[in-house]
Amino acid sequence: ETGVTQTPRHLVMGMTNKKSLKCEQHLGHNAMYWYKQSAKKPLELMFVYNFKEQTENNSVPSRFSPECPNSSHLFLHLHTLQPEDSALYLCASSQDSGVSNQPQHFGDGTRLSIL
Amino acid sequence: GESVGLHLPTLSVQEGDNSIINCAYSNSASDYFIWYKQESGKGPQFIIDIRSNMDKRQGQRVTVLLNKTVKHLSLQIAATQPGDSAVYFCAEKGGSYIPTFGRGTSLIVHP
């Protein structure tokens, strides 16, 4: 149990569907992150929220829309995705994204497949 | 841009042997380094970290070594067990405080 829970664990959707990924952390952290993990590639940072404010948007297409209603919850809303968006989407949290010497704690991800 | 890489994509060892996984980094400003373990179907799990003012740190069966001169990081696993089979990757943090991750090394432990 990592303290970071992601749902659903698996998601299959068509390119015209709208779905949302959910992340919840029980660690009392203030920073939350979305990453994309594709086969044989390093983790790609998508978004960072620190104290509910978005601090990083790593040139992510607008078909991905994050939402952070509070420090414990993070959503990723998906709309009109492309086949190349199929990947493992990982959520992470840390105490504060503005502090260097702290590790991130990851959830087990949502495996997303776009038909 | 800066990058973090791993020398070997796959490492096979026998159960009971010691394993060494290497990582090269290129950002001389990085001051914090982390090793993660990712098992199949799971997210990355924090193993151990080290700050740049140290050159060695030990945990339970794991040791991380940092050589700032050649920008090299290694993870040593003692008495490797089948449960250690996973992908291991390093991450570095510099001034941006957002970590940069390597591709990963797959460790395969044979019984």
Overview of this structure, please?
The complex is a heterodimer of chains A (115) and B (111). By secondary structure, chain A is mostly beta strands. Chain A has no helices and eleven strands. Chain A has strands at 4-7, 10-13, 18-25, 31-37, 44-50, 53-57, 64-70, 73-79, 87-94, 105-106, 110-114. In chain A, strands 2, 4, 5, 6, 9, 10 and 11 form a seven-stranded mixed sheet that branches. In chain A, strands 1-3-8-7 form a four-stranded antiparallel sheet, with no helix packed on it. The model of chain A has no long low-confidence stretch (mean pLDDT 93). By secondary structure, chain B is an all-beta fold. In chain B, strands 2, 4, 5, 9, 10 and 11 form a six-stranded mixed sheet that branches. A five-stranded antiparallel sheet of chain B has the order 1-3-8-7-6, with no helix packed on it. The radius of gyration of chain B is 13 Å and the shape is globular. The model of chain B has no long low-confidence stretch (mean pLDDT 90). The interface between A and B is medium-sized, with 24 and 24 residues.
